[in-house]
Amino acid sequence: MHATVPSARYAEPVQEARIFVYGTLMRDAANHRVLVDLGARFVATARTLAPRTLVDLGPYPALLRDAQGPSAVHGEVWTLAEPALAPLDAFEGCPTLYVRELVELSIDGSTDEESFVESVWTYVFARPAPTSAKVIFEGKYRAKGHVLKIDATEVSELLDIGGENQEIAAPAGGKVRRPR
């Protein structure tokens, strides 16, 4: 879904895009700061309309391309300026590790009657799942204890951000320093 809106980050109005995240980019997850740094805004929780396969690859999950998984995959929908998709693609290793594809979602409302269907972008694993991948049968990834999947300098360069270092929570009560 795209909309043209005024933007404080860009000189002229820009198209906006919606993205479905289901792992370490979700709120309170290890890589959530990436969305914040890109100016993304939370829209709603959601789940895939069709059953899909979500696997745990260790440091992060992957949504597989198969259309016949064990359950709906649960996550969050975010809105961001379309120009922010390029650095997000780079962060996700697109197109070699993940590819960005449209997926049909049931956007959550306060009741089932208020839910509605929308097609939004998401990142789908571009490779066959490794044999070590564990299927997440309930379709809900819990990112607690997972760390940034690329180092802080790479994140800063990919997102073209700079400035002060900022501490973010890390597993087991440690701290990770990451450029802001």
TrEMBL record:
Alphabetized InterPro entries for the sequence: AIG2-like_dom, GGACT, GGCT-like, GGCT-like_sf
Domain Gamma-glutamylcyclotransferase AIG2-like: 19-142
Entry's Gene Ontology cellular component terms: cytosol
Active site: E92 (proton acceptor)
One protein family per Pfam: GGACT
Superkingdom of the organism of origin: Bacteria
MF GO annotations: gamma-glutamylaminecyclotransferase activity
Family that this chain belongs to: Belongs to the gamma-glutamylcyclotransferase family.
Name used for this protein in its record: Gamma-glutamylcyclotransferase family protein
